[in-house]
Structures are given as structure tokens and as C-alpha cells.
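Q: Here's a chain of 632 amino acids. Please give me its 3D structure as C-alpha cells.
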Amino acid sequence: MKLFQNISIKNKIISIVLIVSTVTMIIGFTLVGISDIKSLKDEMLINSLMNTKLIGEYSIAPLTFDDNTGAENILSKLATNPSIISAALYDRNGILFASYTKTNNHFIVPLYENPDELEESKTAFSKNMLTIEHPVVYEDFKYGIISLQVDTSILRTKIKEYLLILLGILLGMIALSFILANRLQKPISQPILELARLTRKISGEGDYNVRIERQSNDEIGVLYEDFNNMLHQILTREEARDKAEKNLLEAKEKAEESDRLKSAFLANMSHEIRTPMNAILGFAELITMPDSEVTPAEKENFIKLINNSGNNLLRLIDDIIDISKIEAGQIKIHKKECRLNTALKDIQRSFLEIRKHKNKEQIDIRVNENVISQNLIINTDILRLNQIFTNLIDNALKFTEDGFIEFGYEIQNKDKLLFFVKDTGVGMDHKKKDMVFDRFTKIEDDKTRLYRGAGLGLAISKSLVELLGGKIWVESVPEVGSTFYFNLPFDQIKESESQQPVVDLKENYDWHDKTILVAEDEPANVIYIEEVLKITNANVLVAKNGKEAVEIYKKKKNIDIIIMDIKMPEMDGYEATQVIKNMNKEIPVISQSAYAMPGDIDKGYDSGMNDYLIKPVKPKVLLSIINKHLTK
């Protein structure tokens, strides 16, 4: 610093300009150089990784069919790329399946250690090469691992040339700075001093809205312009940061609200599960107590209460599973032919029975007359449409004490069908209509607080309607009633004259001359089915697994119908059905299983089953389905 005190202002300006410009350019070039070198490496990495993935996709077929020759032929194509040193294809167990080397002196590891730990592409640059390891995956199944080693000499050459160019540019700019500083001392010093003044102002006040006026078109003018651009970018980033902080705060508040709602939901679930469980366990113990003085009439009433509580608990479990699958995005839509008249009539019959258990027989549950006149057949998910209507009608029945519940549909336009469920219940305030479909939300006030429920049915219905391509909303007036509407795509199928038969739920059957084979591994379920069939006088044979069911059918040719469970040891119900159907494709096979997903049901029908019942199976339904096939 003492040297600067003894030299002229000219040399001071020249020295300062040279030092500042040199240091600035070195820092800038270093940052740019690092970024560009990284870009070169990234470009090489992307190209090499793309080649690796492409080779991996081509290698799926050889890996699948154990075709080493095909795999070797695929890898041999890499000879056209001089930068690839070697390639190795390992099977899913990490054993070398095929390989390629540019030169014979390159060693390839015959065993890939811990192949299951490689779930995504892994890359590594070493001194002379790039190594890429990539799992060969198709449709979530891992077939093997492809490993490539790429020569990086070309990359190193490019980097050296690039650094030489940067160095040349840097030296040239330093020389130019010296000439300008030497010839234009005052025009240079004043703008720099002005820039320094502005910089101090920004640093002190933190105001990035200020700008420096450009007065020339030389390097200083460009510096002014770049400085202004820099200030603009800083200001933009400040605004983006402020916006991000605001968004984070909103997200935090939403997360806290979600946590609160879920905590309330779990507390509500505990109550809703324990309430029917208390009735089931309590009344069951009263009935079975040795010294109980329960009369036959009371015992019959207790059994009805146990059955009703069990149905409530089952619906609650189904709702919890559905809302969990909806949140995880695992609900799948399976569209097929749906006869709307039949579907809605079945729902009506079901709720006419349900209202008895809820002591609400005074409520008229009816299907709109328009349903009968339309007689439409559409392509939709029958299970999900039934679930939507069931949730809406169950909700209406809960909040309706007198009057009626009416449901049906009408053609909204050529693209949409409009469905509705109307009730004369308690209704709701306008402000609460937007909340009624929220997950983990249960609307309660002084009038509705006594109504039990998990608060999931309407949220599930909303999600299912949207998955089916529609929209749901509600119109309601307090003390008058509510009408829930939802529309779905009008995907009509050509009307057929035939109608699906209505399930006959009669009480008495006489099958004394019939033999029924029951394949079930759970003793309690076997006892249940035997008790249900006891009133029919049918001859019942029991198999503990699918394999035993096949053996019994081979020996007993007089079997008239088979009731088949799905999940059984040794041989499951799907396989057992296929084997039996190969022996006699006419024998009726009825599934009774806890596998209730649409994919499971489709798999059952594909295996040859004639009907698919979902546990728990009600006695009347089981007998009706058996009778349907015995009387064909």
C-alpha cells in the first residue's frame, strides 16, 4: 500500500483499474469456467446415461428369455462408439450375463455385489473414465443391471482447450484494460467513482430499485448496463424469496390444520369403532352368560342389534380403507356395462331393509319415476356408482326423521347424466355447504350433534365422482331438506331387451337331492356355511384347501355346485377353479372371499367362477345365488 502513496494519480488509476478488472475477470471467468466445465461433464453424462438406458431397454427381452447371444449382439453394437471402453450386463442376481470390451486387456467383474441395493442410476467420474450403473426395470420389475465405462479423454481435451481460450480472453481483456486506463483516465475514473458511490448507497440502504444512468457505449457503459441487470436480478430474487417464504408459511398453516383435522378424525374413529364394538361384545356376552335371564324375545332383539352394529363397523372399515386409498392415489376405475334401472332398484331394496334396522320405516325411500321410463345402459364403474349412491342415501337416512328420500337421474345433455339424492331432512346452512365434502371434516352444530358418523362418506363420494369424470354439489335449506347432485359422462351403450334377473330372496329351499362342495380353510366360516345350508337339507362336503377340493371333485362326480374361497393353503381358489373347470366347464363355482377389489373380482371371473360374493356373505344372498345356479 505504501507503493500507491508514492506514485502518480495516473498510475494509481491505471493500477487500480488493472487490479480491479483483473481480479473481477478472474473471479467471473472462474465461475463461468466451473459452470461450463460442469455443463460439458453433464452433457457427456446425459449422453452416456441415455445410451445406457437405451441398451438396458433393448436388453429386457434377452434377460427375460435368458438369451446370452442376443445380449452379446446388442452390446457389440457399442463398438461404433469409440469412447465406450467396456459394458457389462448382469442379471437380477448380479451374475454377469453379457459383456463388451474395447480392448481385450480390460477386466470385467463377473459378479455385481448387492444388486438389490441399486434402485436407480449411479454414476461416477474417475481420473480417466466415467462409470455408469443402471438398473434394467420394466413395469416395476427389475430384470438386471447394465454397467458402462466411458473414456473421458475427449472431455479432458475439451476442458484444456476451453481453459486455454478463457486464459487468452482474460489476458486480452487485461491488456485492453491497461490501454483504456492509460488513455482515458478521467472518463474511466469518474464513472467508477460514481459506480462506487451507488454501490455504497445500495449496501447501506438495501434498496435494489435504484439504477445508474448509462452515459456511454463503451465498456463502462456496458458495466453500467450489466450492473443494472444484476440489480434487477437481485430484486427479482428478493421478491421470489419473499413469495417463497409466504408460500412456506401458508403451507405450514395448512399442514398444522391438516394435523389438527387428522387428530380430530382419529379421535372420532376411536369413538365410531368402539361404539359398535361395545354393542357387539356386550350383547354377545349377555346372550352367552350361563346365569343370564335374557328372554327369547330379548335374545332375538340382541342378535339384531349385534348384526346392525356389525354392519355399521364393516361400512366404517370400508370407508377408512377407501379414504386411505384415495389419499394414496390407488383407487382404480373399472368401467363395464351398467343397467341403471337394475342398479338403482337394487339400492332401493337394500335401503328398504336398512331402514328397518334403523327404526325409520316411516321414511319413504323411492326411485324417481324418470328412472323407469329411461331404461338406460351406460358404461361406468358399477361398484363405484353404487358406492356413491349408498353413501349419499345413507347420509340422507341419517339426517331424515320423517318424509321421504328420493333418488334417480335425468339426461342433462348429450355428454352428461345428472344424478340426485333428495331428502326431507334437517338440511344445512349455506355457509357449511362448501365444507361438507372436506376430508376429515364432520359438520356439527346444536341440531346435528347427536347424529353419529365418521365424516368420510361424502368426502369419498366426491373423490369417486371426480375419478369418474364428474362433479358433485349440494343444495340445502335448513329444516326443509337437502338435494345432492352429481353428474357423470353419458357413455351410453345400445339398449338391450334383456334384463338382469332380480335376486330372489325367498326363505325356504329344499335341496335334499343336491350335493354342495364347500372349499374353505377357516373353521368358523365352514361352520357358518354349514349352518346356513342346514335348512336346505343339502348334502355338504368340505375341503380345507383348493387341492383337496380338486381331489374331492375327481372322486365325487355327483357334486352340483361348489362354494370356493380364494385365499387357501397349497392351492388357492383361482387355481382350483381353473382345474375343476377344465374337468367340467358346466359345474357352477361361486366365490365367497374377502378380496373385494375390482381387480380381484375380474380375476375370479377370468378363472371361470360363475359368481363372486364378498365376505361377509348374508345367508339369504348366499342361498339365493346358489338357487339361481341350481335352477338354471
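Q: Can you summarize the key feature?
A: DSSP finds 17 helices and 17 strands in the chain.
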